[in-house]
Amino acid sequence: MKENYDIIVIGAGLGGLTAGAKLAREGKKVLLLEQHDRPGGCATTFRRRDFTMEVGLHEMDGLHPGDLKTRIFRDLGISGRVDFIPVPEFYRFLNGRQDIVIPHDPEAAKSILAEHFPGQETGIEQYFHHVLNAKKIIAEQSGKPGRSVGHFLDEIITDEDLKLVLLGNLGYFHDDPYTLSLNYYLTAQGSYYGGRANFIRGGSQELSDALTGIIEENNGTVRLNSLVTGIEYQGGQPSGVTYENARGRQKESHTDHAGQIIVNAAVPNLAASLLPGSDGKRLARAISGNRIGASLLTVYFGFSKPLKTLGNKHYSTFVYHPSVHTQADIVTNNHSDFSTRGFTFVDYSQVDSRLAPEGKSVGAACCVDYPEDWQGMLREEYVRLKADVADIITGRCEAFIPGFRDAVEHVEVATSLSVERFTLNPGGAVYGFAQHPDKSSEYLSELPGNIHIASAWGKFGGGFSGAIISGYMTALQILRKRS
To answer: What's the rounded Cα separation, in Å, for the pair 387 and 338?
Structure first.
């Protein structure tokens, strides 16, 4: 039996959940469909033995008074449902030549960097001026050709190691500084320095579940294990979706209708398989100039003890191999063997994460990954290479946290193919389209008027913040249009 809704949301990532929660609270009849067995997309957790493994969240930027997410969470009533824990510092950077801890406080960060890199004070000041005044800088550059963060750093700084230190968390955004939009980088990085960062106690699933609860408490419907297979049309306009249960052998198909459709899914998939006929072809042409972003590989660790008892003092440690001497080396290194590829290690025992029972802890090592690293293998080869990667990364962590290997109680690896399987994002892309300086968002104007993008693939880009803001702004757009 077909049902009618005001809004159908395709996908329960943070963008879809945020949009659905806002619209449900405003009295709209919402149906949210998610192909996975839990809501959240990359904002999820899973259980292994005693451990809750955090899928995607290292640290969420912002949540200071001026941060839009603060307003969004207040509006949706998130504050009393989710605990946000400040993380102790931005990151520790290691590359064999430098061992430096960068705090979130910009003045403290400037002092530390000036001490480590004498003679670079002017460049350091220029860097933080741009990062902390991103809105103003971007407005001043309006109408001018886009620049990359790599070229910007080359203009203001001469010390190559200083550039690498500043780019320690590049993997939060992209894989190559010379193809990463400066404007995008300044906005995102400024939120880390301007407003600290937080982890979600219990893991990011807590936020996803809270948003799901808000939808359901306001008479919305959330259906998991429900794979959308197409968008229905009536009178030349999208009018609903067809979907089927995504688990089990017996597939049951359903069709429901709505005046507005929110897509919290990969735009290439929308063009290739969900939008029929000329609308799908037109969208495919409009996005053809945009490159799909990189994916990530994660090694999940469960430890028999908190790593801080082994002397580790840092929440996030970014490790660059000594062979990376310049910015130009970074993208080459991201395609290198896992024995040399840069990675991030997050020690959740440094905060009250609630991811492990007392006396134990959880950690994760993460690096840029590409599907071509894994495609075409037999199942046995794939499993063996994952085990090799886990062993390699364990050994590399042992080098800066002695006793690491002996503390490992559980370890497993998720590759770019794992991300693709669970999120359906092509290539396992975690940030949507790559944020190139010349990336176009004109494809959004090619969509039918009642279809909206609320995900990392929209104009706000990827990451938790980009998805949340995209979802909220999409909901406001629909509410204003309908009013």
So the answer is: 12
Residue 48 buriedness (CB in 10 A; 0-12 / 13-18 / 19+): middle
CATH number assigned to the domain comprising residue 20: 3.50.50.60
Report how far residue 323's alpha carbon sits from residue 329's, in angstroms, rounded to the nearest whole number: 8
Q: Please give the single-letter amino acid code of residue 222.
A: V
User: Cβ of 444: how many Cβ atoms within 10 Å?
Assistant: 17
Please give the model's pTM, rounded to 2 decimal places: 0.96
Using one digit for the tens of pLDDT, what is the confidence trace for 291-328?
Answer: 999 999 999 999 999 999 999 999 999 999 999 999 99
Residue 397's CB is within 10 A of a number of other CB atoms, namely 24
Same structural domain, 312 and 408 = yes
Domain identity same for 310 and 256: no
Q: Are residues 196 and 210 in the same domain?
A: no
Residue 1's pLDDT band (cuts 50, 70, 90): low
Instruction: Please indicate, yes or no, if residue 78 is contained in any of the structural domains.
Output: no
- Which of 357, 384, 414 is the last residue before a domain boundary? 414
- Angle of helix 106-116 relative to helix 121-132, nearest 10 degrees? 160
**Residues 93 and 193 placed together within one structural domain of the fold:** yes
Strands of the sheet containing 197-200, edge to edge, are: 60-61, 197-200, 84-86
What is the C-alpha to C-alpha distance for residues 286 and 103, in angstroms, rounded to an integer?
Answer: 41
Q: What is the pLDDT of residues 398-449, one digit of tens each?
A: 999 999 999 999 999 999 999 999 999 999 999 999 999 999 899 999 999 9
91 vs 126: CA distance, rounded Å: 21
How confident is the model at residue 483, as a pLDDT? Answer: 55
